[in-house]
Design a protein that fits this description.
- It is a single chain.
- By secondary structure, this protein is α+β, with helices and mostly antiparallel strands.
- The protein contains 4 helices and 13 strands.
- The protein has 2 domains: 72 residues, Gyrase A, domain 2 (2-Layer Sandwich), CATH 3.30.1360; 130 residues, Beta Barrel (Cyclophilin), CATH 2.40.100.
- It is 20% helix and 33% strand.
- A 7-stranded mixed β-barrel has the order 5-12-9-10-7-6-13. Strands 1-2-4-3 form a 4-stranded antiparallel beta sheet, covered by helices on one side.
- The longest helix has 14 residues.
- It starts with 11 loop residues before the first strand and ends with a strand.
Amino acid sequence: MTNTNQPEQTPRISLLGTTALLFEPPGKMDIHTQRRIWWLAREVETWPCIKEAVPGMSNLMLVFSTPPRHVDSLEVDLIAAWGRAEELHLEGRIVELPVIYGGEYGPHIADVAAHTGLTIEEIVKIHSEPLYTVFALGSHPGYCYLGGMDPRIATPRRKVPIRGLPGGAVSIGGAQTGVSASPGPSGWNTIGHTALSFFDPLRAPPSLLAPGDMIRFKVERTIK
């Protein structure tokens, strides 16, 4: 339902050159805000000047079909739409991801333990208990931003990024957790690995997951 009882702060709106715009609503990052972003994406993608509406993690990118002549008017319309936005409940799938935690598959799990004061066993238990919601896809093809991680295992990103993180790496960055869909650099703390493939250009659709889907990490084994 639309939250009309309490006043909200003004959203932040930034132009991305002349081809797009980024809408960032106020408030904390949670599932309720994300559901309203999903609703807003469906609403604005029907507007004449909008080519595509792409939900991010607590934000929304609007790609213009043609650069709007009156950006101020578009911003007013966006803020008004956000004010009436409802929580859109997407009917997603539940996907289990078998994970090997620790050892060579989770080279930074000891760093998470050192930061949180928890044992490796406690970290694995806490990380694998929730049912995570896919908030958005981004960063690289097939990568999903997840909501629902227990704050007890939140760990700052690494000061020096890792150049060659493998695909399937299960990592923690700040208050979030995610799984790399392909090899590449990352500043997150890798605690495990899954063999599941998240992106295949020959598959329809190419991404394994979509916003609204849910993930449960299944402990395959833990290496100390």
